[in-house]
Amino acid sequence: MVQTEPEESTVDTDRPPVGPRRLALSPRWATAAAAAVVALAFAVPLRGLLRYQGPPMEEGFMLVFAERFLAGDVPNRDFLHLYGPGSVWVLAGVFEVFGPSLAAERLVGLAQQAGIVFGVFALALPWGRRVATACGLIALVVIIPPIGLTALAWDGAVALGLAGLAVGLSARRLDDTGTARRRLLLAGLLGGLALLYRPDLVVAVGLAGTAMVWGQSRDRVARLLAGVGLGVAPYLVHVAMAGVRPSVEGMLLDPVFELRGGRSLPVPPSWGELDGFLQRAGVLRSPAWPLPAPATSNQVFLWFVLVIVAAVTLAVVGGRAVRRQPRSHRARVLLTVGAFAVGLLPQAVQRPDTTHFAWVSCVSLGFLPVAIMELSRSPLRRLPPGWRGVVAGGVVAGLLVVAIPHFTFRPYVDLTQQSLGRNRFGFPMSRDGRNFYYGSPEAATAAQALIEDLNALAEPGERLFVGPVDLRKTPYSDAFFYFLFPELTPATYYIEMDPGVANAPDSGLAADVASADWLILSDTWSDWEEPNDSRDFGPDGPNRVVERKFCLVGSYDGYFELHERCDRSAAGR
To answer: For residues 566 and 149, what is the distance between their CA atoms, to the nearest angstrom?
Structure first.
């Protein structure tokens, strides 16, 4: 029997009290207007985001991976890629149509983040347009600041997962018809595609999917599972291209067993200091903020608490609502979103820094106003229906302003000012129409000088290696250099460099270095210090290869070095 509850239709939720009639939008246009408010909030900082500093390795490797795939390279076989192939395939398709560019990649990132925000918005609509708008705006200020518009696999996976939940939950309200079955098939497909981006999202997708179809007929459950099967089926193509062993090592063994020691941080985060290196680097630039705020390290700790509390609150309140009203559609939505949020928590715990917190709490904090409405139903009932959502959203927004403004509202305001031409932060490096933005003007100037020298010396088809000056430690890399020199072949499997992986004794890094014609070695990350295994030194073999086989071409203000194979320079370079 299909469970429906027509009295919870979104059409009437925000209808004003009976009185003198004024000009009013139809329900469809009212919902469109609410969505337009959220879209405007995306548009305001967009100009600043498109020319904002990019994370040199993460955004760099996404740009390079997509282009290398178009050149015939395969993730896990030809370069390290710790996630599913979906994000690389999609970005490669965009590059094939529009050409490889930073702008194209960032617009894909914008689409992914919009998918998250409007996914939260759509799921909150049963409680009214005003609370849905508040939920969307909160999700927006949480997800945008940490890593800009970088088209990372996680954002795409969460967006697809939320879309699958919205479609699948809508099917619960339909009679047992072909339309309902088609929607469940589509919901499963979207969930499967989320796993094609990030296989580690399986916990969130599994928990939410179970909550969504619990009590439904076997036929409906089968349709959902069939859709999931269709979504993950392309993994067969990937494994056929990359091979079984490289696929297992790259997507399972490396991220789960090899990477954790060099990327983990204390749980919970330290109260009085910042544990993550990139977190400490980020606070070197602190835009003005007019309101009192806790110390930045205190905010990181508070955010960790909020991530857990918000997710658990959604799940508990949703579970109680379902027990109280088992036929309620809204209760089922809240339970399902809560299950999804709980399933995302491992991402926040495995490396508790603000980027990972944002990836998780964009859902849990974004949807928290709905839980507040459910918890506070009696006190809020005195307010007009639409204003209940405004108050609930204001409570969560106020919580962000008080507890974690440096990672939410402050950067959002800063990006808005940059869009208006004020306090611009992002210094360009360019070559042949390609560009990338660095966060330090001095490092960007040094990199540009290196780019010009290498441009004058290198020949198409030669091999380029990018890594740290001391190759015994591989905590990070300036992978964007590969994107700026697409005619040079990356000389290493480790375009993305991770501690304990690239510098492992059996990584083959020394052989990669020996195969290169050119080396770009960065001193930017030499003082990387975190309370984990990234402090450990690997073999010295790669450094000895540099000493024996390469000659220094130039050193650039202490940030970068350019080396050429000595036998090539001796031959007349």
So the answer is: 40
Query: Which residues have CB under 8 Å from 398's CB, separation 6+?
Result: none
> Which residue, among 115, 164, 162, 113, has the nearest Cα to 141 in the 3D structure?
113
CB 444 within 8 A of CB 428: yes
Rounded CA separation 104/93 (Å): 11
- H or E element in which residue 405 lies: none
Regarding whether 510 and 397 lie in a shared domain, the answer is: no
Q: Which residue stretches of 249-384 are H helix?
A: 260-263, 277-282, 296-324, 329-350, 354-375, 377-380
Tell me if 56 is assigned to some domain: no
Hey, how many other C-beta atoms are within 10 angstroms of the C-beta on 33?
Answer: 12
Q: Name the DSSP class of 495.
A: S
pLDDT 10s digits, 250-307: 999 999 888 989 999 999 999 999 999 998 888 768 888 999 999 999 999 999 999 9
* Res. 181: pLDDT tops 80: yes
- Is the sign of the CA dihedral 540, 542, 548, 554 positive or negative? negative
Using alpha carbons, select from 190, 203, 126, 125 the residue that is nearest to residue 159. 190
Asked if residue 404 is part of any domain, the answer here is: yes
CA neighbor of 169 nearest in space, from 193, 186, 192? 186
Count of domains in the chain?
Answer: 2
- Do 438 and 343 fall within a single domain? no
Chain centre distance of CA 541: 35
Which of residues 416, 439, 466 is at a domain's end? 416
The model's pTM is 0.94
144 pLDDT band, cuts 50/70/90, is very high
Domain annotation covers residue 15: no
406 lies in the same domain as 440: no
Q: What is the CA radius of gyration of the chain?
A: 25
Give the domain range for residue 465.
427-570
End-to-end CA distance of the chain: 79
Q: Could you identify the residue written with the tokens 């927006």?
A: 140
Among 224, 229, 156, which residue's Cα sits nearest to residue 188? Answer: 224
Residue 530: which of 231, 329, 275, 169 has the closest Cα?
275
Q: Where a domain ends, among 385, 416, 447?
A: 416
